[in-house]
Design goal:
CATH superfamily of the largest domain: Exopolyphosphatase. Domain 2
Strand order of the largest sheet: 8-7-6-9-11-10
Number of helices: 14
Number of domains: 2
Radius of gyration: 18 Å
Strand content: 15-25%
Shape: globular
CATH architecture of the largest domain: 2-Layer Sandwich
CATH topology of the largest domain: Nucleotidyltransferase, domain 5
Number of strands: 11
Helix content: 40-55%
Order of helices and strands: EEEHHEHHEHEEEHHHEHHEHHHEH
Length: about 300
């Protein structure tokens, strides 16, 4: 039977439909911003819940048209579902009205599913490190030889959360930017011991892989190709200097100017600077000189038989 997965994050909602041989029949991402305001209020907003609900309902229809009934969709919620006090009410309503039942992933489950789904065909799982910058959190995961389960973590820094907490000006001020950078670096400093231990587990330079909207958008901006092309983007390499340059370019632009950049999804423009800043600081603080982009990720991982 065909398979489908829905990944509902803080910023985006993604749908993947595959046939029994793994061929992708449909792969779509929609910015719904479910986590809008959660960092400040701890609650999902009515308008954000409506955007997500309507998207899930539409996705269920697409999946049904491709042979997957709503009750057989693997649907998962991530950071906003763990953080918002009214999240359970929202997911109960979605189940009742759309027929889609969500599983709320823990930080470790989210990290493991992202890792399993992100690897490109030629990559060894024993030598890879996967980064997923979401709206509400950032995951860094490896599964080196001899490790039991995942070797990584989930940090409470994401593109939406950092934007809402620090960026109130348009364009951002230097003071806002530096405050955000300092907060990100403080979180990342918790992983210095993890990075040192990783060097003992994976000799030499590991294959560093990045997934999700921030990573894909940075690759599109760097390549100059405004069209989403999975074949071009999978395996696209960004160097640390490339990411730093893109951060500086996004920093001086207004949100409206960012939205007009070739390769930028307009609805992502307001949080793209924060996502790029997190991306750059991970590479700087944790000493990764280059990164390969993967268009895959969590929605692929939850369909992996080994995920459970």
């Amino acid at each position: 039977m065909n398979q489908a997965a829905i990944d509902l994050g803080t910023n985006t909602c993604l749908l993947l439909v595959r046939d029994t041989h793994g061929k992708v029949l449909h792969d779509e991402s929609t910015v719904v911003r479910l986590g809008e305001g959660v960092a400040a209020s701890g609650m999902l907003k009515d308008e954000a819940m409506k955007r997500a609900h309507d998207c899930i309902q539409r996705y269920a229809g697409i999946a049904a048209g491709l042979g997957v009934s709503p009750d057989r969709i693997v649907a998962v919620g991530t950071a906003q579902a763990r953080d918002a006090r009214n999240a359970q009410m929202f997911f109960s309503r979605v189940n009742a009205e759309c027929g889609v039942k969500f599983r709320i992933l823990s930080g470790d489950e989210e990290a493991r599913a992202t890792f399993l789904g992100a690897l490109l065909p030629e990559m060894s799982s024993k030598r890879a490190v996967v980064m997923d910058i979401g709206g509400g959190s950032t995951e860094l995961v490896a599964m080196p030889e001899g490790s039991k389960g995942i070797f990584g973590t989930s940090l409470g820094i994401g593109a939406v959360r950092i934007s809402e907490l620090f960026f109130s000006s348009n364009p951002v001020t230097d003071t806002e930017f530096w405050a955000a950078e300092d907060a990100i670096d403080r979180e990342l400093s918790k992983l210095r011991a993890w990075r040192s231990e990783l060097e003992g587990k994976i000799p030499g330079e590991p294959a560093f892989v990045a997934v999700a909207g921030t990573a894909v958008t940075l690759a599109m901006l760097q390549s100059g190709n405004p069209a989403y092309d999975r074949k071009l983007l999978d395996g696209f390499t960004l160097r640390k200097g490339d990411v730093h340059r893109l951060v500086e370019e996004l920093k001086w632009r207004t949100i409206e100017e960012r939205a007009a950049m070739p390769g930028m999804e307009p609805k992502r423009a307001d949080v793209m600077l924060a996502g790029a800043l997190i991306f750059w600081r991970v590479m700087e603080v944790l000493r990764f000189s280059s990164v390969q982009i993967s268009t895959r990720g969590l929605r692929y991982g939850v369909l992996d038989p080994s995920f459970g």
